[in-house]
Amino acid sequence: MLQDDSNTFALGEVRVSSSPQERFDEYLQSKGKRTTQQRRVLVDTVFERHDHFDADELIGLLGKSTEGAKVSRATVYRALDELVEAGLLRKMTLGGRAVYEHDYGYPQHDHLHCTECDALIEFRSDELIALREAVGREHQFRVTGHRLIVSGVCQDCAGKRHRRQSPLDLI
Amino acid sequence: MLQDDSNTFALGEVRVSSSPQERFDEYLQSKGKRTTQQRRVLVDTVFERHDHFDADELIGLLGKSTEGAKVSRATVYRALDELVEAGLLRKMTLGGRAVYEHDYGYPQHDHLHCTECDALIEFRSDELIALREAVGREHQFRVTGHRLIVSGVCQDCAGKRHRRQSPLDLI
DNA sequence: ATCTATGCAAACCGTTTGCACGACC
DNA sequence: GGTCGTGCAAACGGTTTGCATAGAT
């Protein structure tokens, strides 16, 4: 992330007034939690790249991290929960495992999920927001969020298509 | 499910030309699999009620089943996979666990998920189908399906609201 | 000094699997 | 009779937790 002269940070596409570190520190303080080596390294590593990742990938990255402190598996899991609570990360569940992505300073969006290569492609849709509000109203349901995953096959995989058996390939 | 004089079955809201049992049998035959006691009881139990359920609930129901045959945990898991492959059930993942619902003869729909009581409320939206196609086209992505879960608080829970702490209750 | 955070390893929980026995065609 | 299915119990994989120690305030 880059800081410009007006003291804001570019994260993804949106400018926000403080860095993830700063924001996380605020969260920690508000909860009476402490700013530790490992929490710092972790936030740095997470916001170094704009990617989807799971706990294991993060643990892998932390292994190679230049910053000295090593972070145990348990601590990674505990910190991920905190980052979600702090509003810095968004968590979703894909298949069995939990997948995380940047939330703070990043616009609302949804995903195309390629069932061949597991890629996640982001897209934005304002109509969807309108739609979810309408549905909520219709059912006296107080909407707080949504998760849409459109599955299918991405352009790349559609190319090198070495035809797998499809379910219900009767006969 | 009830059979009427025109030999179709009412499952949920749509009429189909054969019962889940029959359809499952077809699937099994097409795969060279066998029609066993336990698969029969299982399909009966699953289609007795129109509900969302997980593996454990089903195992529970099978325990009380009047039909003699008992079905082991392993068999339940194996059969659920088959029912999904056969197009009789749809599987989704909510939090950690797999949740199943009727697919066969039941219209495409999505869900409102109450984060307080975990209830799932179904709704239909044709605009969503249009939307997902549009997005797919835009990204050269061959769409095969989607999963939308709108989360929030249902009417009931909004009433007896005994205010839990909300994440990000800073200060 | 106090009290939270960490690391380790064991526990957990839903799900899957190897294997010997039983049931279907 | 030959296979496929089942039950059991053990294995699995991601995640959580209890506990003693290290570290932040």
TrEMBL record, chains A, B:
<keyword id="KW-0408">Iron</keyword>
<dbReference type="InterPro" id="IPR036390">
    <property type="entry name" value="WH_DNA-bd_sf"/>
</dbReference>
<dbReference type="InterPro" id="IPR002481">
    <property type="entry name" value="FUR"/>
</dbReference>
<feature type="binding site">
    <location>
        <position position="157"/>
    </location>
    <ligand>
        <name>Zn(2+)</name>
    </ligand>
</feature>
<keyword id="KW-0678">Repressor</keyword>
<keyword id="KW-0963">Cytoplasm</keyword>
<dbReference type="GO" id="GO:0000976">
    <property type="term" value="F:transcription cis-regulatory region binding"/>
</dbReference>
<dbReference type="GO" id="GO:1900376">
    <property type="term" value="P:regulation of secondary metabolite biosynthetic process"/>
</dbReference>
<feature type="binding site">
    <location>
        <position position="154"/>
    </location>
    <ligand>
        <name>Zn(2+)</name>
    </ligand>
</feature>
<feature type="binding site">
    <location>
        <position position="146"/>
    </location>
    <ligand>
        <name>Fe cation</name>
    </ligand>
</feature>
<feature type="binding site">
    <location>
        <position position="110"/>
    </location>
    <ligand>
        <name>Fe cation</name>
    </ligand>
</feature>
<dbReference type="Pfam" id="PF01475">
    <property type="entry name" value="FUR"/>
</dbReference>
<keyword id="KW-0862">Zinc</keyword>
<keyword id="KW-0805">Transcription regulation</keyword>
<keyword id="KW-0804">Transcription</keyword>
<comment type="subunit">
    <text>Homodimer.</text>
</comment>
<feature type="binding site">
    <location>
        <position position="117"/>
    </location>
    <ligand>
        <name>Zn(2+)</name>
    </ligand>
</feature>
<comment type="similarity">
    <text>Belongs to the Fur family.</text>
</comment>
<dbReference type="GO" id="GO:0008270">
    <property type="term" value="F:zinc ion binding"/>
</dbReference>
<dbReference type="GO" id="GO:0003700">
    <property type="term" value="F:DNA-binding transcription factor activity"/>
</dbReference>
<keyword id="KW-0479">Metal-binding</keyword>
<dbReference type="InterPro" id="IPR043135">
    <property type="entry name" value="Fur_C"/>
</dbReference>
<keyword id="KW-0238">DNA-binding</keyword>
<dbReference type="InterPro" id="IPR036388">
    <property type="entry name" value="WH-like_DNA-bd_sf"/>
</dbReference>
<dbReference type="GO" id="GO:0045892">
    <property type="term" value="P:negative regulation of DNA-templated transcription"/>
</dbReference>
<protein>
    <recommendedName>
        <fullName>Ferric uptake regulation protein</fullName>
    </recommendedName>
</protein>
<dbReference type="GO" id="GO:0005829">
    <property type="term" value="C:cytosol"/>
</dbReference>
<feature type="binding site">
    <location>
        <position position="114"/>
    </location>
    <ligand>
        <name>Zn(2+)</name>
    </ligand>
</feature>
